[in-house]
């Protein structure tokens, strides 16, 4: 490429502005959000030899990768991410191996027992459901024509296929099929999955040495320049650049005020990405009373608007974890922990009988949908808004950069994707700083 005098002058102006911003800054780079994207970005900035600090609203790090321990010793479970997806290209595969934590491969086992309204489904019903999932997979594999919702993609199919599509989106994306872009679903990466015992705890340990300010929610970002001013309840922090990694649910809620307002293109990108409501409810079990429930995975459905599956004794712990998504999960989050735990107990009893209630000693709700620092489980591209993920990557005047699973393209909705996108944003910032 031939450099013109104009391009040289423009480059010099950028470097000069960067130098002024750095001279006025208290820290070179501020990262907002201590989830996987923010932590990966901060680690990369630090490796590049620049000053960085991570501001996190919660009093812990890891974001939506979180290992819940409130049910007591020996009953921890991952309330958020639990799989290293598409492990062949996921950076966490080697981190997991080096850490020595327990894992389990996602090998295909027997089709889960299907319970419909408390009644065990017949073999014919199970066969129809399997066939329905196969048909949905074929319909969503490289769909032709304009982008449309998953519900529209299966609209002409029979009840088994439509039901399978609903189960698919609720239990993998946490959303109803009419709100999911079929083209976005198709672009998500696939591959081997590794189930990690304590994924959230591993993320927290891996990045524990970074400069963190926990319990520090960001309320505003002033990007009028030449640097950025980041507002918190404890005061304003000035930096040359900011990397914003809060979930799109938080951006959409307006919890962080931008001055000036976000450009129309960025606001449109945020609006094109909703948040799913994938939810888990952990139930602590009496080991003696639940010893015969080992390794049982039960799929439950039939309640209008509700699809769930029951994970029994994960990693041989005395636990039952109910997974659900979509509007039924939203209702449980909004009802609160006590009501959600009671509902999970009802589902457990519908499978194993009323006697199992005596084995439950407590419960915990992972209410991502009502969590003010997430506003949902992970990003969902709305039908017709496939380009929103890529559009979210465009920075504001090369000073404010966005990163996270929502901008991770095929890696969206995963810790691995968030990590890769955080590193992508860090490279852009390092280039801005002249590294």
From TrEMBL:
Residues 194-430 form the Amine oxidase domain. It comes from the Bacteria. SUPFAM superfamilies: FAD-linked reductases, C-terminal domain (SSF54373), FAD/NAD(P)-binding domain (SSF51905). The keyword Signal applies. The keyword Signal applies. Pfam families: Amino_oxidase, NAD_binding_8. Residues 125-147 are annotated as: Disordered. Pathway: Plant hormone metabolism; auxin biosynthesis. Residues 1-23 form the signal peptide. Keywords: Auxin biosynthesis, Signal. Its EC number is 1.13.12.3. It catalyses: L-tryptophan + O2 = indole-3-acetamide + CO2 + H2O. Belongs to the tryptophan 2-monooxygenase family. This is Tryptophan 2-monooxygenase. It comes from Methylobacterium indicum.
């Amino acid at each position: 490429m031939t450099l013109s005098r104009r391009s040289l002058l423009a480059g010099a102006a950028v470097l000069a502005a960067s130098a002024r911003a750095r001279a006025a800054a208290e820290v070179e780079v501020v990262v907002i959000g201590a989830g996987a994207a923010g932590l990966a970005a901060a680690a990369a900035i630090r490796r590049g030899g620049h000053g960085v600090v991570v501001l996190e609203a919660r009093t812990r790090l890891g974001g939506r990768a979180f290992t819940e321990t409130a049910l007591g010793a020996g009953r921890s479970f991952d309330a958020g991410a639990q799989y290293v997806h598409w492990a062949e290209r996921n950076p966490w595969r080697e981190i997991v191996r080096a850490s020595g934590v327990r894992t389990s491969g996602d090998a295909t086992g027997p089709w889960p027992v299907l319970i419909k309204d408390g009644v065990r489904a017949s073999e014919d019903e199970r066969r129809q459901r399997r066939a329905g999932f196969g048909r949905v997979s074929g319909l969503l594999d490289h769909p032709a024509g304009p982008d449309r919702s998953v519900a529209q993609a299966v609209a002409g199919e029979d009840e088994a296929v439509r039901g399978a599509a609903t189960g698919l989106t609720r239990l993998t994306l946490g959303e109803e099929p009419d709100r999911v872009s079929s083209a976005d679903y198709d672009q998500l990466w696939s591959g081997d999955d590794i189930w990690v015992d304590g994924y959230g705890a591993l993320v927290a340990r891996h990045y524990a040495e970074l400069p963190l300010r926990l319990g520090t929610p960001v309320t505003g970002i002033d990007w009028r320049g030449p640097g950025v001013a980041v507002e918190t309840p404890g005061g304003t922090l000035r930096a040359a650049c900011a990397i914003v990694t809060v979930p799109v649910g938080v951006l959409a809620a307006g919890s962080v005020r931008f001055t000036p307002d976000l450009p129309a293109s960025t606001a449109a990108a945020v609006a094109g990405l909703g948040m799913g409501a994938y939810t888990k409810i952990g139930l602590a079990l009496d080991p003696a009373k639940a010893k015969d429930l080992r390794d049982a995975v039960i799929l439950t459905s039939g309640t209008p608007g509700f699809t769930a599956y029951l994970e029994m004794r994960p990693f041989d712990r005395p636990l039952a974890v109910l997974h659900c998504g979509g509007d039924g999960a939203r209702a449980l989050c909004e009802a609160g922990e006590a009501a959600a735990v009671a509902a999970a107990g009802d589902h457990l009893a519908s499978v194993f009988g009323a006697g199992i209630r005596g084995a439950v000693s407590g419960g915990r709700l992972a209410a991502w949908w009502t969590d003010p620092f997430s506003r949902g489980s992970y990003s969902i591209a709305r039908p017709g808004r496939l380009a929103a993920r890529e559009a979210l990557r465009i920075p504001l005047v090369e000073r404010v950069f966005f990163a996270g699973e929502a901008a991770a393209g095929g890696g969206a909705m995963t810790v691995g994707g968030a990590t890769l996108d955080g590193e992508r944003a860090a490279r852009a910032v390092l280039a801005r700083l002249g590294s």
